[in-house]
Structures are given as structure tokens and as C-alpha cells.
Design goal:
This protein is an all-beta fold. It has 2 helices and 33 strands. The structure holds fe (ii) ion. Fe (ii) ion binds next to strand 20.
């Protein structure tokens, strides 16, 4: 059996590349001074048994593009060092602690961003965050200077009013009967940790926060012992016996006893778009919803289960009721928003189209206007698809959609020097999403379809 997560658009690259002064078309906004970064799985060397290889278990690799003065100064890709990568490259393994089963073996592969003046690669389920240099070389595992009590997450949420990161973390078998909510302050130290009993070891990939609550997404994907018995290295499966629910943990001194649990229809989710408290005291969460996950395909999310739709929950904490609403039934994933409206009511959301069963895992970039209910589409044309759209506010702008979108575009129409599909970065004007890109920067090599990243301006992490 071939593994679709190791071939085609997902096939790993085999080399670390540094390329300077990249050619491009159009105009790179000179205000963009910093790095576009993205993390994803890129197994090093031969995969021992592809039939048991879960997409989420590949060694982390960060791709970066540095922009300055309207030029594309460099592109780099670097494996995030962990024990397996270090062994393969003949290097010493990185120092620092880790948590959970087998998590020293592969480096964080899910997200990368800037916080507390440095660059972090992150993953859920036990892998300690790994600190990177500006040029993406590994410094080492960093458990927030010894303050992290257990696992971390690939999706901490930033609260601009406090400068803190908030994460919902899990880690089996270390945390077999609970998850941990952790808060990291602006200096990169964990200042708060709350244990929340949750049965069955669910996969909790992300968190939402509002001014009042931290949200626990306890849906119906849990550790599955049948999948584990097959030797699949990320053993999650759909669990009809684990009802889906959402928990609201009061941020102001809340403990596990204070969590407001609200039942929802069975579903799975990886990613909320944004969340906020509305004027009536409800919690509004926009997210990408899966009817099921890991029920047929145990190696990754895109095999046979339902395509993710764009949905909204409106949660009434007083009555513990949830109004569920379908916003759009096309395939939406990797939701992003203008960071200036984080935790506040947003008007716009940006998503990558998911096209199941095709060569590409992505298609168009969508902009959803939640006020008018309209959706604007940027199509990349035949054989091309845009990944996670990263929103960057324009300098001195105020309007919510006044920003740039940086999108990694995969291109089946061209091949790199190794015969793999091409890749480029497009910079789109979020105000005029349907218009052609303002700049297109071809990358020197294939970039496997992967996960998340961010724009890290030099004002956040200095060169
Ligand atoms: Fe994610």
C-alpha cells in the first residue's frame, strides 16, 4: 500500500537549501520586513513501514522566506532537530527535556512563530517547543525555562491585552485522565496551569480564548487501542462512545469545577477561526467542522472522512446550550483572521479550500464576510492550490481587511530540480482578494503540503 501522505504533494524533500536574492514578479510591499515561516512533516531518510506512518508523525521541517526592502532576501528550509534527525545527520541530539511517549524522537512539526523575542517550533502531545535561530537552525528544546509542567500545543492563542499565550495541552500516557490549560507570559514563562479531568484521551489540537473564557474542544476523536495495536504511530480514531462537548473555563481564577460543559452534535475539529464574547454574554466560535475524523483513514485527515465545512457555534453559558450554524459547505481549513480582532468580534475570515480526492489538498483562498454572508474567492488556476493564508495588517491601516495575505501556493504545472511539484509564495491584497497577486516569489524547491506558520516581523524577532 502506498501512503498518500508520503508521495505527490506531501512527498518530503531530501535536502536543506539556502537560496539568496530570489527572483520575483510584481511588487513586494517594502513595509514587509521579516520572515514568512511554515512548519510541516518531512520524514528524514527511509520511512520504516509506510503502511503504519501517520502524516502527523513526520520529522518537523521549517521553511522560511526573508523579506526586506521590497526584496526576497533568502529562502531556507531546515529540519527541526530532534533525536532521529540528529542521528541521521550525524549530529548531537538537542538538549532539553521532553514529555510523553517517544517525543524526543521527532521534532515539532506543526507550527512555527515568534514569541518572547525568539522563534519557536511547536507541536501538540508532548514534544517540547524547540527554539530556533533567526536563520532557522535549532538551538534546543525549551520548556519555557523549566516552567512548563507537561506538554504544550501547536496552537497557543495570543491575547493582545495581556501579552500572554494560552494553550490547551494533552499528552498520553503522561496525562491519561486529564488535560492541562497553561498560560505563558510575555517573558516566556508559564504562570498558570489548570488540570481538567477529561476521559478517553481525546485529541485536542487547538484552543479558543475570549475575554472571559478558555475553551476546551473535547470532541469524538480519542486514543484508539485498535489503531495502536496496528502499530500506527499516532493512534487516534473516531469514537462513537465519546460524546462531543465544548467546555468554557472561566479565565478569571477558574478551576476544573468551574468548567461549563455544553453538549454538541458529534463532530471533530482541528481549528477555530476566532472566538469572542458577544453583547448578550454568549460565546461565538467560528471554526472548520468535520462530521467525522479518523473513522476510515487512520494515517491522516483527508482520506475518506467528510470534508470540513465552515461553521459557527453560539454558546449560551447560562443555559449550557449551543446553537450550531453552517456558514458554508465548501471545504474550508487553515482559518485565519486579522490579528487585530483576536478575541473581538471579527467581520472577515480567511481559509484554504480543501479538495478531497484530488491531487491537491488545497484549492482557492476564501474570504468570508460574516456581516453580509458573502464569500470572495481567489482561484490559482488548474493544478495550483493555496495553503494557509497568513494575514498581515498593512502599515498604518485600521480597517479589518486592510492587509496582505501571504500564501504558499503548490503548483503541479511545474517541477523543481528534483522533479517534484513547484512552490511559490504569493502576496495577495486582502481588500481585493479576487485580483491577481501583488507579488509572486517562486521558491527554489518543492514544499510538501504541511501545516502552519506565521509572518514574524523583525520588530517581533530581530535578526
Ligand atoms: Fe493545526
Amino acid at each position: 500500500m502506498s501512503n498518500p501522505y508520503l508521495s505527490g504533494m506531501c512527498a518530503p524533500v531530501e535536502q536543506e537549501v539556502t537560496a539568496n536574492d530570489l527572483a520575483f514578479t510584481g511588487t513586494i510591499p517594502p513595509e514587509l520586513e521579516g520572515r514568512w515561516l511554515r512548519n510541516g512533516p518531512n520524514p528524514i531518510g527511509e520511512v520504516a513501514d509506510p503502511t503504519k506512518h501517520h502524516w502527523f508523525s513526520g520529522d518537523g521541517m521549517v521553511h522560511g522566506l526573508r523579506l526586506q526592502d521590497g526584496k526576497a532576501e533568502w529562502y531556507r528550509n531546515r529540519w527541526v532537530r530532534a533525536d532521529r534527525v540528529a542521528r541521521a545527520l550525524g549530529e548531537e541530539p538537542p538538549a532539553g527535556p521532553s514529555f510523553g511517549d517517544n517525543r524526543t524522537d521527532h521534532g515539532p512539526n506543526t507550527n512555527v512563530g515568534g514569541f518572547a523575542g525568539t522563534t519557536w517550533a511547536m507541536v501538540e502531545g508532548g514534544g517540547t517547543p524547540v527554539e530556533l535561530t533567526y536563520e532557522l537552525d535549532t538551538i534546543g528544546r525549551n520548556d519555557f525555562s523549566g516552567t512548563l509542567p507537561a506538554a504544550f500545543s501547536a496552537h497557543p492563542k495570543y491575547d493582545p491585552s495581556t501579552g500572554e499565550l494560552h494553550a490547551m495541552t494533552y499528552c498520553w500516557p503522561d496525562l491519561i485522565d486529564h488535560v492541562k490549560y497553561v498560560v505563558v507570559n510575555g517573558e516566556g514563562l508559564v504562570t498558570k496551569s489548570v488540570d481538567i479531568p477529561v476521559p478517553d484521551m481525546p485529541m485536542i489540537h487547538d484552543i479558543s480564548i475570549t475575554d472571559r473564557y478558555a475553551v476546551i474542544f473535547d470532541t469524538s476523536v480519542t486514543v484508539n487501542f485498535d489503531v495502536m495495536a496496528k502499530g500506527i504511530n499516532i493512534p487516534f480514531g473516531w469514537n462513537d462512545d465519546h460524546p462531543s462537548r465544548v467546555g468554557l473555563l472561566p479565565r478569571d481564577g477558574g478551576t476544573a469545577d468551574d468548567v461549563i460543559w455544553c453538549d454538541i452534535n458529534p463532530c471533530a475539529l482541528f481549528h477555530p477561526l476566532n472566538a469572542y464574547d458577544d453583547a448578550d454574554g454568549n460565546v461565538v466560535i467560528d471554526f472548520c467542522r468535520y462530521e467525522k475524523m479518523f473513522s476510515l483513514d487512520h494515517l491522516g485527515p483527508f482520506g475518506s472522512d467528510a470534508s470540513p465545512t465552515l461553521d459557527r457555534w453560539t454558546i449560551n453559558p447560562a443555559t449550557r446550550t449551543v446553537t450550531e450554524e453552517r456558514i458554508d459547505d465548501r471545504g474550508h481549513e487553515f482559518p485565519r483572521h486579522d490579528p487585530r480582532v483576536g478575541l473581538k468580534e471579527h467581520r472577515y475570515g480567511y481559509t484554504a479550500e480543501v479538495v478531497l480526492g484530488a491531487d491537491m489538498l488545497h484549492g482557492s483562498t476564501f474570504k468570508t464576510d460574516y456581516t453580509t454572508g458573502t464569500l470572495t474567492e481567489h482561484s490559482y488556476g488548474e493544478g495550483r492550490g493555496g495553503a494557509e493564508p497568513v494575514f498581515i495588517p498593512k502599515a498604518d491601516s485600521k480597517a479589518e481587511d486592510d492587509g496582505w495575505l501571504m500564501v504558499l501556493v503548490h503548483d503541479l504545472n511545474v517541477t523543481d530540480g528534483n522533479g517534484q511539484p513547484g512552490a511559490e509564495i504569493q502576496i495577495l491584497d486582502a481588500n481585493d482578494l479576487a485580483e491577481p497577486a501583488v507579488a509572486t516569489i517562486p521558491l527554489p524547491q518543492h514544499v510538501p503540503v504541511g501545516f502552519h506558520g506565521n509572518w514574524v516581523p523583525d520588530t517581533s524577532v530581530a535578526p
